Amino acid sequence: MNISNPSKKPSNTCVTCRARKVRCDGNRDICNNCMRLGFTCSYDDSIPHHHPNTAVPGIMNHDGAAAAAAAHDALTIHAVASHPPRRRVRQACQSCHSRKAKCSGTMPKCDRCRNHGLECVYRPSKRSRLTTTPGGSSQHGRDSFMSDVASGMVGSGRDGYLSDQSRSASDHLESNGFGSLGHLPPPEESLVIHTFEKFFRHIHHIPLFSYLHQASLMQRYHSGSMDRPLLLSLIGITSTLTDLGHGARDYGNRCISMAELLILRDLDQPTVLKIQAMILIIKHRIFFRRFSDAFMLTGLVSRFAAALRLNHENPRLCFLAQESRRRLMWSLFMIDIGMAAGQVDFTLWATRPERIDLKLPCNERNFEYDLPEVTESLAPPPPRPDGSLVPLSDHVGFLALHIRIQWIRSRILAFTKGLVDAKPGEQDLEGVPRKCEELQRDLDDFEGRLPIPFKWNEANLRLRAYHPRLCVYLMTHLWWQQCHCDLYRFALMGRRESLSKEKIQSLDPAFVKYCQTRCFEHAKAMADMFALVLQFEKGVPVSDLDLTVLSYQCANTLYYTLATCGDEFDLSYASVTDMATSCLKVAKQSAPGPAAAAIAEVLDKLMETGWVRPVTASTATSPASGTPANHEAVAVDPMLQRDALQEADVTHQLYNPAIPQRNPPPQVEEQGHTMETDGPQGAPTAQMQAQTPVLPRDDEVMTSAHAGMMAGVTTLSNAFEGALDGSNFGMGGLEPFAMDSSSWYTGDWMDPDPSRHAGLM
């Protein structure tokens, strides 16, 4: 018996509703769904239709071109109807959701909340709160996300920030613990323009950020060729240093994380644009106390620069491109100086400036208006035969001077660190005054070549008080003062990078007194500069973390002088407190972010407790021997003790000599005795750990997986001994990160809760 297939029921659903998988009422000429949402409906008789099983009307006519055009239009309409545009946003804010109002889904505020002045908060999706899958699947998910989402986002234009491809990839992102990035909405046009205005008005004149050319950047953005990581990183750093509106800072943090992910996805394709974005990302990580991230990213971006030969001139490019590349490379050079702080093991460019075959940047006016000029090299020209100094070129601006004083500072720190960390018997104490005189001559020549309008005085400060370039003018002169404190600090007994008591006593007493005087005089000069800046209504300019660090350094030196030899300099507690108050005001106003707030808090505690003289063993270590460089008990700056800053908000204490504590460590013995340590004497951080009788470090709490790996390890030699150890920014493993080294990056101010960055890379 033949059973024929039942006839297929005719469809009563238009192509658009079928593609959207919604119920269609089948109304002609257009269904209600398509009419309500403004979609193209296949039932609309006003548009041509395509029926694949029937001939197109007019196809047999002599007018074949018209028939072909009609068929093409029908296919186009059918394709549009089967792929309707998205009308809903992925997520409504809580305010719109509670009132069942339409939400635009824009960040940092939706249109409705902006118009009504409401607080706009987006709730994280359920999938974004899921934990990542342990093991290889988690890593696979991350790799898959970085491959799919980044390609989808980079490939989209300015008007299509998140394409359908990247939307589906962002769903995969959510399931792998990166949900907050997967739903990163595109920045509004108004937010982008506001970011550009704020950046070039308040931030661009910070020396590290001066490599972007405003006209070129705006032209690139309006042409639709703006690099996505650079745009996101600009929003992130600008939202950190300025006020872009409610919710902009959180959105900027997510932009920074997304920009970092996009760059890390294409490590094999370095570009100048990526280096520009990475500089902004590194500084953002520093502001938010993620110093280990910044340290590692600096090495990566240095590789990028070397691969692109950014440290060499490229005469084939136009002047603007050459100057922008020069400034970018010098920004990386200054970051490297701040990272290493004179420690040779951590420097990439500071110890070999001869590898940077570039002229110093030109002045801002010539860069802004594309006026080519030739400037000086990093090393200044030698004096004339009669001993007079060569006048400073008119083409050299304060940005070039700032780079040069940073270079002098790196040489000073390299000298003092090498002196303190040298092995016993290798210290040339007799040549110390001669070397100090040589470096002092470089500082004097630097100041002597400055023209009258460039020198520090109240008149020149007033001329720049309301100008964005006040920042580089102020910072250059502050660093010149701080260089003197760095140069002579090794003779201040008890300070972090000082020589041992025995070594200091072997020096000429007149020279030691000279060092103490120079440190105090220049610290006092810095305090006077802070007080002068605070007199102006505009106050402290927007700056990076350098200004906060210098304010702390100044107050620390003043309190040390008061505690050790205050009578000799006619100092009183009231006068020092008054100067330290100016330092504290500058620290609180100079830079936002957790790192600056942590430094200001430590400075506030220093003003409460003053500089005390607890007796403990020196913690200076020699990288060559790994043993303490000073073997006798000396009076130690409270900055050299346990991290008081983290007492309130850290689950485990990390010792770092840069932060004061209110109470001396329990292990400190009576005066004249050194501490006993539980660990081996050869360990570089043995004495540091002994001063911190708190919870064990993270690396001492071995996980079950690590315990299983080490179960079979015996006391015999093993090639995997120490294989699970990581870098330690808080236990002396990275000495230059202490604040007494004038470095931005210290383990004391690392984020006490790294888990908050889970999913944000």
UniProtKB/TrEMBL annotation:
<feature type="region of interest" description="Disordered">
    <location>
        <begin position="655"/>
        <end position="690"/>
    </location>
</feature>
<dbReference type="InterPro" id="IPR050815">
    <property type="entry name" value="TF_fung"/>
</dbReference>
<dbReference type="GO" id="GO:0003677">
    <property type="term" value="F:DNA binding"/>
</dbReference>
<keyword id="KW-0805">Transcription regulation</keyword>
<dbReference type="GO" id="GO:0008270">
    <property type="term" value="F:zinc ion binding"/>
</dbReference>
<protein>
    <recommendedName>
        <fullName>Zn(2)-C6 fungal-type domain-containing protein</fullName>
    </recommendedName>
</protein>
<dbReference type="Pfam" id="PF00172">
    <property type="entry name" value="Zn_clus"/>
</dbReference>
<dbReference type="GO" id="GO:0000981">
    <property type="term" value="F:DNA-binding transcription factor activity, RNA polymerase II-specific"/>
</dbReference>
<dbReference type="Pfam" id="PF04082">
    <property type="entry name" value="Fungal_trans"/>
</dbReference>
<keyword id="KW-0479">Metal-binding</keyword>
<feature type="domain" description="Zn(2)-C6 fungal-type">
    <location>
        <begin position="92"/>
        <end position="122"/>
    </location>
</feature>
<dbReference type="InterPro" id="IPR036864">
    <property type="entry name" value="Zn2-C6_fun-type_DNA-bd_sf"/>
</dbReference>
<keyword id="KW-0539">Nucleus</keyword>
<dbReference type="InterPro" id="IPR001138">
    <property type="entry name" value="Zn2Cys6_DnaBD"/>
</dbReference>
<feature type="region of interest" description="Disordered">
    <location>
        <begin position="126"/>
        <end position="180"/>
    </location>
</feature>
<dbReference type="GO" id="GO:0005634">
    <property type="term" value="C:nucleus"/>
</dbReference>
<dbReference type="GO" id="GO:0006351">
    <property type="term" value="P:DNA-templated transcription"/>
</dbReference>
<keyword id="KW-0804">Transcription</keyword>
<feature type="domain" description="Zn(2)-C6 fungal-type">
    <location>
        <begin position="13"/>
        <end position="43"/>
    </location>
</feature>
<feature type="compositionally biased region" description="Polar residues">
    <location>
        <begin position="130"/>
        <end position="139"/>
    </location>
</feature>
<dbReference type="InterPro" id="IPR007219">
    <property type="entry name" value="XnlR_reg_dom"/>
</dbReference>
